[in-house]
């Protein structure tokens, strides 16, 4: 099954927007798609995850799994985000053990939501 | 279709825990279930929505709809939460127009996640 990594491409992450400069969310999306996407993961840009005060925000979700939302992500975090998404894809319920969870996912959780249904 | 209102019953909402006293998340759950549940809504307690620094937290979700997570909820907000859940249940995609959205949902959004699939 494919899991979805949503990336807010409108996140300003509390930075002023400079003319002609991509916002932090767009930069994060660019950094993620510039690398090889892990097997079982698809990256989907989204306009606003309504986590504006905690941006840049991303979310991991899939049918039947817990959804996770993380904040304060930057383009420099792209490798860890992809590793974390791969670990999420490798589960059946979305729950990655604490020991196997990447550091930024341990420290910058915004929320998790039980499987929807 | 039934929508789910998840309520974190372990949320301490940054308050010290007093012996024998229910935590703020449990108090919120009690306040919500003490009132009539709106049609089309079910209230489901959950242990930890991983929004600990922004608790007490709740989430609204249903298959095919946007998921919404709200923070800084208190027992006093129960009537508005139930009104907001009813409005969410009345949509097909989970998106309640800004004008019809209850004030606490406008101001205390933690995140929203696109329909999962």
UniProtKB/TrEMBL annotation, chains A, B:
InterPro entries: DUF1636 (IPR012863), Thioredoxin-like_sf (IPR036249). Coiled coil: none annotated. It comes from the Bacteria. This is DUF1636 domain-containing protein. It comes from Paracoccus methylovorus. The lineage of its organism: Bacteria, Pseudomonadati, Pseudomonadota, Alphaproteobacteria, Rhodobacterales.
């Amino acid at each position: 099954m494919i899991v979805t990594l949503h990336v807010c491409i409108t996140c300003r992450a509390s930075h002023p927007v400079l003319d002609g400069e991509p916002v932090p969310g767009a930069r994060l999306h660019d950094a993620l798609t510039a690398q090889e996407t892990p097997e079982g993961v698809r990256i989907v840009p989204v306009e606003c995850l309504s986590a504006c005060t905690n941006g840049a925000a991303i979310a991991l979700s899939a049918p039947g799994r817990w959804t996770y939302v993380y904040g304060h992500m930057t383009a420099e975090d792209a490798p860890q985000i992809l590793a974390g998404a791969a670990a999420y894809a490798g589960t059946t319920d979305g729950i990655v053990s604490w020991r196997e969870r990447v550091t930024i996912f341990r420290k910058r959780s915004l929320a998790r939501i039980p499987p929807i249904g």
